[in-house]
């Protein structure tokens, strides 16, 4: 019963944020700080509704000035509600072109100045990546990317795609890894206290002086650091869980 009530309330929050967010977005379209506002509107009420406790250690992310590539693990569509509380100022995302058809959310994504990527068209995909490189280098804006390229609820990170690393090197900006504890099957929304979520940003990794030849080593380095951090965060979650979580 509690689970159903929560899903209804989260759905209503999604619709309310969509309407209010459209008003904000239309008043200041493509403002680079719109995404932070939208993310907070989604996340703060949702965390309370879902009974989730968020432990965020994101000083390296929030203290770093805009103009970096943020890479994070992507577990499910719940990320939009769970991670919104740590979105930094002046941040844009790269998302699939199909997102624009999602009612309300797609329009907010567009008004937030985010980049819609058509992966089936190589030419348009390259143009989109060039646009994000200019945003990084010229507009004092950070780019948030899920380097796995898809949702992954598993314990092991998938192989990273090179787009995020190529953009960072071309723009000469650092990469800031953001790690989220595994939550698939570990949260119970039918309990008043449904569980914990741990988020930690790692120190920025500089890319100045690197070239395309350095991309494989850079990808491997970032993936290894993130995997180790995610394993540690997830282990802490299990140790601090007040009771077994029903999957």
Automatic annotation (TrEMBL):
The organism's place on the tree of life at top rank: Bacteria
N-terminal signal peptide: none
Catalyzed reactions per annotation: a 1-acyl-sn-glycero-3-phosphate + an acyl-CoA = a 1,2-diacyl-sn-glycero-3-phosphate + CoA
This protein's UniProt keywords: Acyltransferase, Lipid biosynthesis, Lipid metabolism, Phospholipid biosynthesis, Phospholipid metabolism, Transferase
SMART domains reported for this sequence: PlsC
GO terms, molecular function: acyltransferase activity
Pathway: Lipid metabolism; Phospholipid metabolism; CDP-diacylglycerol biosynthesis; CDP-diacylglycerol from sn-glycerol 3-phosphate: step 2/3
EC number, as in UniProt: 2.3.1.51
Acyltransferase found in the keyword field: yes
Enzyme class (EC, first level): transferase
Domain Phospholipid/glycerol acyltransferase: residue ranges: 68-183
NCBIfam families linked to this entry: AGP_acyltrn
Domain note: The HXXXXD motif is essential for acyltransferase activity and may constitute the binding site for the phosphate moiety of the glycerol-3-phosphate.
Family named by the database record: Belongs to the 1-acyl-sn-glycerol-3-phosphate acyltransferase family.
Stated name of the protein: 1-acyl-sn-glycerol-3-phosphate acyltransferase
Organism expressing this protein natively: Pseudomonas typographi
Lineage: Bacteria, Pseudomonadati, Pseudomonadota, Gammaproteobacteria, Pseudomonadales
